Amino acid sequence: MISCSGISKKYVSVEALKDITFDVSQGDIFGVIGPDGSGKTTLFRILTTLMLADTGTATVNGLDVVKDYKAIRNIVGYMPGRFSLYQDLTVEENMNFFASVFNTTVEENYDLVKDIYVQIEPFRKRKAGALSGGMKQKLALSCALIHKPVVLFLDEPTTGVDPVSRKEFWGMLQNLKQQGITILVSTPYMDEAALCDRIALIRNGSFLAIDTPQAIINSFNEPLWAVQTNQMSQLLTDLRDNDRVANCFAFGDKHHMTITNDEQRNPRRSQLQMKNGEAFDEINEKELEWLQEYLENKGHQDIEIDRIQPGIEDCFIRLTM
Question: What is the spatial distance between Cα 273 and Cα 207, in angstroms, rounded to a whole number?
């Protein structure tokens, strides 16, 4: 449904996109995951025919984004990162306006947006600018769907939205997928990656990995440790200063780290018990003892060391180091 080959874009001296190549199958939710400034919006603007790439080719539903731009605009829905509806128009007026742009009516395609629009319909006489963040999001999605697109582009749709609205929004996307709509969504939130069928991790205009979320997690083949002490700032310094620590980064109230050495590559593993009674899975006892002793010698107290399973954010950071 979406195909990109060698897409690159440069703004003066900044390379926004570098040789981007990927495909999206019909009916999939494909996530482009990365921080602000990584090139997500530029990619979306190229695919929605709002911007020309410097090099490369791209098609949407078999239509070329340069030659067939008019046809593409009739079959895609686009929800930009910034709320871009008319804030001085009411909810109802915005819906009617966007439907008329595509020579249709709200009534004609109401079944497609019903589950979403019903949540904001009680406020249909309220001006869009007076809506809450979550309500604005639902209105923007309804307007992007009102002409029954076959592909939906959502550029950071949940940024700045409360957790409850974020969860509701992803539930809506799953329902749209069931209706056969192909969805390309970008987000800086790593936890949303698991809600996609396939994802691409992007940084500085380049894709670091493209696969299913679980396959990317499975590629993290090193033991990952979560460490916490009474001196978290000093802990980060002490771990990064040790040659046996491959990498270490702050992660919430703990630091995540990996160790690399000959023993790690040929480990003698055992089963140890966590404080909550669950068993560690294949923990290298020597590494645990070494780390505990090292931190005690550095003056750390209340030391907690846990073997954990990596997440998408761990994989992303590992790929960027």
Answer: 39
